[in-house]
Every structure is written in structure tokens, then in C-alpha cells.
């Protein structure tokens, strides 16, 4: 067989390697944030992921950048659920809340280790990447709630602020740890949110 007739070996795509390496780093970061949050550094996360520090720094320039990437990754799944949910009205909001609570049980122990020093509305105004994704998740569900209760669109940022306040993963996990099932947490927080929104806006 001539050289020209030999089948070419398929080399791994650099893009696939990049996606795989980034996923390994984020998975390792999540594991460390759950068990040893104070020890999270780019080199230690790289070691846990089986990668070199130099490789890790190509994807995340600092500890803060790595943690931000992990947090953003955890909420992308909820964004996809929200976008794909076929429900409308209050049912849409309630389905996305139920999924939010389910995901918090899985990733919440890691995400609660991360706290911004800036307030929610400030980060939203500054177009923080995580806040923009949060807004994207809740744009359709919250506007559906607002239409139902005849809340003016001008209050959307306040509706989002109240969501962030009442559906904090730390408090959701606290309720679950107190003995409530995920469905019970949803059954209590959802009507409480409706009441808070109407009380805030006078609707």
C-alpha cells in the first residue's frame, strides 16, 4: 500500500480538547468548593483535574475568574430549562422555580461559598456576566407573573431583586436540611414570592 493509499489518522480537535479541559477544571473547582472552599486555587484545581497549572491558566487567569466560571456554568443549565419550558403564565414560573430548587440541591453547597461584595442591583446595572444570565433565565417567567398580577413592567428589576432575595441557595438548602422536601420548599416559597411582589409594588 502506498503512502497515498494509507488512511489518515484523525487528530483530536484542539477545540474538543479545550472544551474537555475547561469542563475538567470546572468539575474539579465544584468539588473543591463543596469540600475545601478555602483551598481553591488555580494550581490545586488543575492538579485535581489532572492538568498542569500552565494549562489551567490558559482558561482561567485567577481564582476569582475560575470561581466565576463555575458559578456561571451552574446557572446555564437552568437558563436552558427556562428557555425550553413550554408552559406559560404562573405555571411557567412555578416550573422554573421547581427546577431551580432541584439544581440547588445538587450544586448549592458549592455556589454558596461564593459571595459578591457588591449588591444584586449594582451588579445587574454593571452588566455582570452572571447577573445577565440570571436575568435571561427569569425574563419570561417573571414577566408572566407580573402580567398575571398586573404589575407594571417598570418593576421588573425589583421583581428580579426579590427573586434573588427569596430563592437564595443558602436558604433553600437550609429549608431542605430542616426536613422539607423539595416540593414543600417550592410550595412555601412560591406563594410567599407572589405576596412579596404584590406588597412591594402595591399590586
TrEMBL record:
It comes from the Bacteria. Residues 19-78 form the HTH tetR-type domain. Keywords: DNA-binding, Transcription, Transcription regulation. GO terms for molecular function: DNA-binding transcription factor activity; transcription cis-regulatory region binding. Residues 41-60 bind DNA. Coiled coil: none annotated. Pfam families: TetR_N. The keyword Transcription regulation applies. SUPFAM superfamilies: Homeodomain-like. Gene3D superfamilies: Tetracycline Repressor, domain 2. The keyword ATP-binding does not apply. This is HTH tetR-type domain-containing protein. The lineage of its organism: Bacteria, Bacillati, Actinomycetota, Actinomycetes, Kitasatosporales.
Amino acid at each position: 500500500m502506498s503512502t497515498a493509499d494509507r488512511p489518515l489518522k484523525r487528530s483530536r480537535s484542539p477545540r474538543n480538547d479545550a472544551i474537555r479541559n475547561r469542563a475538567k477544571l470546572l468539575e474539579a473547582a465544584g468539588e473543591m468548593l463543596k469540600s475545601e472552599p478555602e483551598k481553591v486555587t488555580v494550581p490545586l484545581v488543575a492538579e485535581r483535574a489532572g492538568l498542569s497549572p500552565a494549562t489551567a491558566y490558559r482558561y482561567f487567569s485567577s481564582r476569582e475568574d475560575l470561581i466565576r466560571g463555575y458559578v456561571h456554568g451552574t446557572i446555564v443549565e437552568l437558563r436552558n430549562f427556562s428557555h425550553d419550558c413550554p408552559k406559560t403564565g404562573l405555571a411557567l414560573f412555578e416550573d422554573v422555580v421547581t427546577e431551580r430548587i432541584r439544581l440547588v440541591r445538587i450544586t448549592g453547597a458549592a455556589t454558596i461559598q461564593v459571595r459578591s461584595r457588591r449588591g444584586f442591583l449594582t451588579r445587574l446595572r454593571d452588566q455582570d456576566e452572571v447577573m445577565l444570565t440570571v436575568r435571561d433565565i427569569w425574563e419570561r417567567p417573571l414577566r408572566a407573573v407580573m402580567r398575571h398580577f398586573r404589575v407594571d413592567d417598570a418593576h421588573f428589576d425589583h421583581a428580579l431583586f426579590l427573586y434573588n432575595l427569596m430563592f437564595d441557595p443558602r436558604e433553600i438548602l437550609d429549608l431542605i436540611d430542616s426536613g422539607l422536601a423539595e416540593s414543600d420548599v417550592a410550595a412555601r416559597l412560591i406563594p410567599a414570592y407572589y405576596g412579596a411582589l404584590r406588597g412591594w409594588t402595591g399590586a
